[in-house]
């Protein structure tokens, strides 16, 4: 069975939240396994992440908060886990996170995602299904591709149940990553993270930051469209649908959409596939 999940980021205004709840309802019609909600490392969105998670969960749809350990203490993280348990949450996306540059480690007691996974298991046993992040094109700060694979395996062995990848536009990078970590003993599902293409400059900025490569042929085409956003959306839908089809045909167990709090682009791709 193909799993489907959608990712949101916490909104800043009441109006934004109202809009997001409409988006949630539109996406809920496609029976996703869960909606995940990002978390600002260092706790900057702690309350807003919680509020969105609560609003999703109250509609009877599973919500999976992201939780980043960098910049936080064990006591803070324990408090957040308690809050989520009380709310009936049973899935967490466990991350190291990125602090804004120049802010150092900010008193982190847990330095890497594997430390967080281990801590959550110690504190809460098997209560939470734990998702971790995977980087088919290598995490941008990794010292080497091989070391990054080892570090991924480390967090799986610490107790992760499933992984979601950073987005990518090259299906082979996903298949190669999966093959390599499976050969290292990993047998959890690795769900490709899918970024719909709707705006070239935003996508280029994002991709530079997170180390996702936009292949030259896609970049050149998007650049050539300039301000013609209809063409960008149409081309983006074709390209992303094609990648998803290849991923699913090649055995990917599901898809996780980075929705950017919008429903149209993710749904357009999903509808092409089902
Ligand atoms: P880790 O797995 O800890 O890896 C971080 C780096 O350290 C890698 O280079 C790795 O090779 C290395 N490493 C790992 N373990 C060790 C170790 N034990 N010893 C030495 N080196 C090690 N960021 C947010 O701030 N909030 C979010 O909500 C958020 N959601 C995300 C969701 C997904 C699906 C993905 C893919 C990313 C998300 N991110 C989020 C971004 C993520 O936090 C950053 O990419 C961050 O830099 C790494 O987090 P991680 O959990 O992958 O870290």
Automatic annotation (TrEMBL):
Which molecular-function annotations from GO does this UniProt entry contain? methylenetetrahydrofolate reductase [NAD(P)H] activity
**Stored CDD domains:** MTHFR
Superkingdom is Bacteria
- Record key words, sorted: Amino-acid biosynthesis, FAD, Flavoprotein, Methionine biosynthesis, NAD, Oxidoreductase
State the EC number(s).
1.5.1.54
Cofactor(s) needed, names only, are: FAD
Q: Which residues cross the membrane?
A: none
Q: Which reaction does it catalyse?
A: (6S)-5-methyl-5,6,7,8-tetrahydrofolate + NAD(+) = (6R)-5,10-methylene-5,6,7,8-tetrahydrofolate + NADH + H(+)
Q: Does the keyword Oxidoreductase apply?
A: yes
Pathway listed for it is: Amino-acid biosynthesis; L-methionine biosynthesis via de novo pathway; One-carbon metabolism; tetrahydrofolate interconversion
Query: Per the record, a Pfam family?
Result: MTHFR
Keyword Iron-sulfur recorded: no
**Matches recorded under Gene3D superfamilies:** 3.20.20.220
Q: What NCBIfam families does UniProt report for this protein, alphabetically?
A: fadh2
Q: Give the record's family classification.
A: Belongs to the methylenetetrahydrofolate reductase family.
State the protein's name.
Answer: Methylenetetrahydrofolate reductase
From the broadest rank down, the organism's phylogenetic lineage runs:
Bacteria, Pseudomonadati, Pseudomonadota, Gammaproteobacteria, Oceanospirillales
């Amino acid at each position: 069975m193909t799993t489907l999940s959608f990712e949101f980021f916490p909104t800043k205004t009441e109006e934004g939240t109202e809009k997001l709840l409409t988006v949630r309802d539109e996406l809920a019609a496609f029976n996703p396994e869960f909606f995940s909600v990002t978390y600002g490392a260092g706790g900057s969105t702690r309350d807003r992440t919680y509020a969105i998670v609560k609003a999703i969960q109250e509609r009877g749809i599973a919500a999976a908060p992201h939780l980043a350990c960098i910049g936080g203490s064990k006591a803070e993280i324990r408090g957040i886990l308690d809050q989520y348990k009380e709310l009936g949450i049973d899935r967490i996306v466990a991350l190291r996170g990125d602090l804004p540059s120049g802010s150092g480690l900010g008193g982190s007691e847990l330095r890497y995602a594997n430390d967080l996974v281990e801590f959550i298991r110690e504190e809460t046993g098997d209560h939470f299904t734990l998702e971790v992040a995977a980087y088919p094109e290598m995490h941008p700060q990794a010292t080497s591709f091989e070391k990054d694979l080892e570090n991924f395996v480390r967090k799986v062995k610490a107790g992760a149940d499933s992984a979601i990848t950073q987005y990518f536009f090259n299906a082979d990078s996903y298949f190669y990553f999966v093959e390599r970590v499976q050969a290292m003993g990993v047998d959890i599902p690795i769900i490709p993270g899918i970024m719909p293409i709707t705006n070239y400059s935003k996508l280029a900025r994002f991709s530079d930051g997170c180390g996702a490569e936009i292949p030259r042929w896609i970049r050149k085409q998007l650049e050539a469209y300039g301000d013609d956003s209809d063409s960008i959306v149409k081309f983006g839908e074709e390209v992303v649908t094609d990648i998803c089809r290849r991923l699913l045909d090649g055995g990917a167990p599901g898809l996780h959409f980075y929705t950017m709090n919008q429903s149209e682009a993710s749904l357009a791709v999903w509808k092409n596939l089902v």
